[in-house]
């Protein structure tokens, strides 16, 4: 059987026409172009103009000056007292200008030359016959006790906490291991605070508001084992070196924060070593012994030796009399942490109070520190914004900067009227400038620069846009070739 050959025609497969392909590709690009404004709007940053000229002008402003007038009672003071005071001040300024920064000192011979026009506007010092023996160097130390008001810090000033209008004072009685016996189960802290700290705290309320809290812990182990040594008297003891004091605070096991607060906390710890580690003393590099030490800008620690109360019961409860020496130490350390200056040995001051000399000097020092820190923060903001072109500057940042500048202007005008108001203004300026500098919207860009954006966008949009670009180029080439061939046919 023969089969006639049959011509089989395979239908030609036809794809979309060139025009249809071009329209499809063009529609993708239209969608992309229409989405660009939305992408730009959603990813653009709010960058408001800052008062740069005003910031630079305030940064270049001369040092804040407090008028300080020394009034000498000409009728009762000895002859030549004014000249002696003036020469002492000029001599002290010649040695170092730093302690006298921010002070415009004028010495007058009689009280009638003083024109006090404001409330607490001018510091006046009257020298009476019994004070005429006050030497010039002691007077200079009372007027300008701080060697560096805000430019650098000495070893003593490194202990001082940064200024804050509010402080929380946390008193903690920590037993290293109460189960070993001879523990301290309680203390009359309210009575001790009222007797030894309240007078000082009431005086310092012109600078700070204090909140007090206390706690007792029965297990507060050390993070290391103090070595055993022999005391100069031949008795065994456990010693802490100055290097070990840096790791004495065991934050991991000691629950020191008893409340949640944003206010800075100054800790005052009465540490009771376990019965197996007594006595525990601190030995300095010079070999001297002490029972207390200050942790810079954090607080202080007093180490208790319960053997002093050996005649009492095993579980001790410290009375206010027992706490007298301890809280006198806490008081002295508190004044150091807050930056209260010491007085010359030739000047007698009540031990449980802060003199007006010290308060006045501290007012000036804290105001100068706040103004200096505010200017630095504002200058840093302006520098960062100018260096980083796409750093966001929102209305909250701009508002804080403007309010800080207004507060600084008010400080300069209030310094001659009321130093206390000037301190409040300077603290407000410092808070506003710091809040602007640490604004979350500005800090985020410091850790997410433009290079990171490219690293995110390229893997996301590269695989999508590259085929569209290649297809568009092919279609344009094909369209150009068709157009060229049509021209040739016409010719």
Question: Could you explain the architecture of this structure?
Answer:
There is one protein chain. This protein has a five-stranded mixed beta sheet with strand order 6-4-9-13-12, with helices on one face. A four-stranded mixed beta sheet has the order 7-8-10-11, with no helix packed on it. The protein has a three-stranded parallel beta sheet with strand order 2-1-3, with helices on one face. With 491 residues, it is α/β, with parallel strands linked by helices. The relative contact order is 0.13. The longest helix is centred in the last third of the chain and has 41 residues. Strand 10 and strand 11 form a beta hairpin. Helix 3 packs across helix 4, helix 5 runs parallel beside helix 6 and helix 8 runs antiparallel to helix 9. It is built from eleven helices and 14 strands.
Summarize the entry for a quick read.
With 491 residues, this protein is α/β, with parallel strands linked by helices. It is built from eleven helices and 14 strands.
Succession of helices and strands: HHEHEEHEEHEEEEEEEEEHHHHHH
- Beta-strand level of the residues, as a percent range? 15-25%
Mean pLDDT, all residues: 81
Count up the helices.
Answer: 11
Task: Give unreliable regions as ranges.
Answer: 117-121
- What percentage of residues falls in helices of 4 or more residues? 40-55%
Give the tally of β-strands.
14
């Amino acid at each position: 059987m023969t089969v006639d050959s049959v011509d089989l025609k395979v239908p030609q497969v036809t794809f979309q026409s060139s025009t249809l392909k071009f329209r499809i590709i063009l529609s993708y690009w239209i969608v992309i172009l229409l989405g660009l404004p939305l992408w730009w709007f959603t990813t653009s940053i709010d960058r408001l103009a800052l008062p740069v000229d005003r910031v630079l002008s305030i940064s270049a402003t001369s040092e804040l000056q407090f008028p300080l007038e020394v009034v000498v009672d000409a009728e009762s003071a000895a002859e030549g007292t004014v000249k002696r005071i003036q020469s002492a001040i000029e001599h002290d300024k010649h040695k170092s200008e730093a302690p006298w920064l921010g002070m415009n000192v004028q010495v007058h011979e009689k009280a009638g030359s003083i024109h006090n026009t404001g409330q607490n506007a001018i510091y006046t010092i009257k020298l009476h016959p019994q004070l005429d023996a006050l030497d010039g160097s002691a007077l200079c130390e009372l007027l300008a006790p701080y060697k560096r008001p805000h430019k650098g810090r000495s070893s003593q000033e490194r202990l001082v906490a940064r200024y804050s209008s509010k402080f929380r004072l946390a008193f903690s009685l920590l037993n290293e291991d109460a189960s070993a016996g001879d523990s301290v189960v309680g203390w009359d802290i309210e009575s001790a605070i009222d007797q030894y700290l309240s007078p000082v705290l009431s005086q310092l309320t012109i600078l700070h508001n204090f909140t007090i809290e206390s706690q007792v812990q029965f297990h507060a182990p050390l993070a290391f084992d103090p070595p055993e040594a022999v005391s100069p008297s031949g008795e065994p003891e456990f010693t802490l070196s100055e290097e070990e004091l840096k790791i004495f605070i065991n934050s991991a096991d000691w629950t020191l924060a008893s409340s949640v607060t944003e206010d800075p906390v100054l800790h005052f710890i009465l540490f009771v070593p376990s019965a197996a580690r007594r006595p525990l003393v601190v030995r300095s590099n010079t070999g001297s012994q002490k029972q207390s030490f200050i942790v810079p800008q954090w607080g202080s620690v007093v180490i208790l030796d319960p053997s002093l109360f050996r005649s009492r019961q095993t579980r001790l409860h410290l009375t206010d009399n027992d706490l007298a020496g301890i809280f006198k130490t806490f008081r002295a350390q508190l004044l150091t942490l807050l930056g209260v200056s010491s007085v010359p040995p030739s000047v007698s001051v009540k031990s449980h109070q802060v003199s007006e000399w010290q308060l006045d000097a501290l007012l000036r020092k804290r105001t100068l520190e706040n103004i200096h820190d505010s200017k630095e923060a504002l200058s840093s903001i302006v520098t960062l914004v100018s260096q980083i072109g796409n750093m966001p500057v929102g209305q909250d940042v701009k508002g804080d900067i403007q309010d800080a500048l207004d507060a600084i202007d008010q400080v300069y005008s209030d310094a001659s009227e009321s130093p206390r108001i000037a301190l409040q203004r300077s603290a407000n300026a410092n808070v506003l400038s710091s809040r602007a500098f640490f604004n979350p919207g500005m800090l985020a860009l410091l850790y997410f620069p433009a290079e990171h954006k490219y690293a995110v966008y390229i893997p996301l949009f590269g695989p999508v846009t590259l085929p569209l670009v290649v297809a568009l180029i092919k279609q344009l080439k094909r369209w150009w070739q068709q157009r060229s061939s049509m021209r040739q046919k016409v010719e």
